[in-house]
Amino acid sequence: MDAMRRRMGPFELLLASPRQVKAIESSDGRHFFYVFQIVTQSNKLALNTECTLRIDNSETLVTTINLDKNRVTIRSAIEIPLEAAEYMLIIYPWFLYQRLQTALESLLEEDSYCVDTALRLFGKIPPDRRPTSLQLPHAELNARQREAVQLCSDRNLAFIWGPPGTGKTTTLGHILTELMKQEKRLLVTSTTNAAIDQALAHLAELGDAQPTLVSGRIVRVGQTEAPTFGASTNEVKNRLHAETREKIEALRSLQNERYGQITPCDLILEKLQADTQQLDLFDRVELKTLTSQDLRPIFSENYLQYVLNLPTKR
Q1: Is 174 exposed, middle or buried (0-12, 13-18, 19+ CB in 10 A)?
Q2: Which of 36, 49, 33 is nearest to 90 (CA)?
Q3: Which of 3, 44, 95, 265 has the fewest C-beta atoms under 10 angstroms from its C-beta?
Q4: What pLDDT is attached to residue 158?
């Protein structure tokens, strides 16, 4: 990096006509956005590049946000004066190399980069293997195909190879159903849509995959003209929304039913309260009895008979 800096000097672009666009508060502080006219054109200017903006005799770090013909939008952590005599954008050609070097140095510190997986992929370290028991019989497969399913179940990295017509896509369908049965999350990708369509078609033919398809746990992302077997994003969304709407309607129906029971309950309470107000310590007052007609709007028929048969002293 030091040799690159000595060999390549910075590029300077003259800017003019600054205009503040907006200011935004974020978790890492306040940012100001400005649009400048580019006086000196250069192919060295790129998006999301950290540069130095020289304003007369002062300098500040900025980032290019948008390029539009002869204009550039930059982001700054400080306010930029709009009446300065000169604005010079200084681009350092080693900026991307420095960012790459920083990213490479962080590989050993961040687990999210999955360095071990990358090294296994290129054969630098062997894959992990843990013997497992298959959850499905896979009776439709031949011995070699079942070996492939077992291999993918046992290892965290596996390559399945075979000449055309040997049933690789069929085997893939069984691999997917097996791993789903083991409650693993899967992402199937390919360089072509056709390959994904074929994999989905073979998966849909397997009875073991039907519950997962119907439940919306298999989603076909992206545009395709091929059958999606109810797994396209819109189909899954509409199906799940339909189930939610049915539940909402059922709850509304139950809510209306409960509201319908409130009025009869209020009438019964009024009758009981009226009776208690007539009680006298010395005079016997004949109390009214609740009838089945009073209670029928509140209780089901079976429970109504149970209530009516309760002892009067209870």
Answers
A1: buried
A2: 49
A3: 3
A4: 94
In the chain, the amino acid numbered 154 is D
Q: What is the pLDDT of residue 6?
A: 60
Q: Which helix (H) or strand (E) holds 307?
A: helix 301-308
Tens digits of residue pLDDT in 71-97: 999 999 999 999 999 999 998 776 667
Cβ atoms of 93 and 1 within 8 Å: the answer is no
Element (H, E) at 241: helix 233-277
Q: Which of 116, 93, 119, 115 is nearest to 103 (CA)?
A: 115
Q: Which domains does the chain have, with CATH numbers?
A: 2-99 (2.40.30), 143-231 (no CATH), 241-308 (no CATH)
Question: Quick one: pLDDT at residue 42?
Answer: 80
Q: What is the 3-state secondary structure (H, E, C) of 9-45?
A: CCEEEEEEEEEEEEEEEECCEEEEEEEEEECCCCCCC
* pLDDT tens figures, 154-168: 999 999 998 988 999
pLDDT at 314: 46
Q: Which residues contact 266 (CB under 8 A, 6 or more apart)?
A: none
**Structure-block tokens of residue 191:** 């360089």
* Residue 21, burial from CB neighbour count under 10 angstroms (0-12, 13-18, 19+): middle
pTM of the predicted protein model: 0.51
Report residues of the chain scoring pLDDT below 70.
1-9, 94-96, 275-289, 312-314
Q: In whole angstroms, what separates CA 268 from the centre of its chain?
A: 52
pLDDT at 109: 79
Burial per residue of 86-117, b for 16 or more beta-carbon CB atoms within 10 angstroms, e otherwise: ebbbebbebeeeeeeeeeeeeeeeeeeeeeee
